[in-house]
Amino acid sequence: MTITLTARNVRRAVTTAGVTTEILQGCTLELKGAGLTAVVGPSGSGKSSLLMCLSGLEQPTSGSVSIDGRDIYRQSASRRASMLRSEIGFVFQQYNLVPFLDVEENITLPFRLDRAPVPRAVVSELIESFGLSHRRRAPARSLSGGEQQRTAVCRALARRPGIVFADEPTGALDSQSTRLVLDTLRRMADEGQMIVMVTHDLDAAALADTVVVMHDGRTVKTFGRSTGQELLAFMTELRA
Ligand SMILES: Nc1ncnc2c1ncn2[C@@H]1O[C@H](COP(=O)(O)OP(=O)(O)OP(=O)(O)O)[C@@H](O)[C@H]1O
């Protein structure tokens, strides 16, 4: 089935110590079916905030976010929680690994919490393709930042959710690991997953099928496949 993610005029304001800040000031997008989408934009433009709203974790102040026509913020709390668990995967900037569990245990934890069968072959393939085979039994607390990040990406992908949201999935990685993660995300998208990633890296964005550009809390432009230079030219124009 083709999954559709729709955001309509999403706004989010936060009030801290009596001061209200409009973090998102009108974000609209529609993503249909499998593919890799990159959300790019200057620091502070609202990329992570948009991802939180799109993934059901932070309720917009106004506007709507729907998966296949179901507004995720209009579901009951239990229905939303079950949608999130079964249809959405996340990779956060903080990896949220359990420090005393090893790589494989962290990846399989969501299955065990759900008392669901662990897809051993899928997990092994992911561990191998992310270059973690030699660290399979290492506790998360002993992993390098890059290894933690790759483990977190594996954990999100193992359930094969319809949509995977990833906030800077290559942020802490060296160039070799970055390539590994991007190639795997690209392959997963080609194999049928919708992947939405926030990235600062315009060369990574150039691997995406769709690039959403944010500026000052707004989605200002959506590109199809583009080169790093085309994206850089647009971003430079935006800043001018
Ligand atoms: N809970 C909050 N309270 C107040 N301000 C916030 C909150 N969350 C985010 N902001 C502000 O909203 C703006 C957008 O933040 P966000 O993290 O979404 O941007 P970003 O584009 O992902 O930035 P970066 O690329 O630096 O990670 C920033 O100015 C940030 O300081």
TrEMBL record:
GO terms assigned for molecular function: ATP binding; ATP hydrolysis activity; transmembrane transporter activity
Sequence ranges assigned to domain ABC transporter in this UniProt record: 5-235
Keyword annotations of the record? ATP-binding, Lipoprotein, Nucleotide-binding, Transport
Annotated Gene Ontology cellular component terms: plasma membrane
What's the protein here called?
Answer: ABC lipoprotein transporter
**Which organism was this protein described from?**
Rhodococcus rhodnii LMG 5362
Lineage of the species this protein comes from: Bacteria, Bacillati, Actinomycetota, Actinomycetes, Mycobacteriales
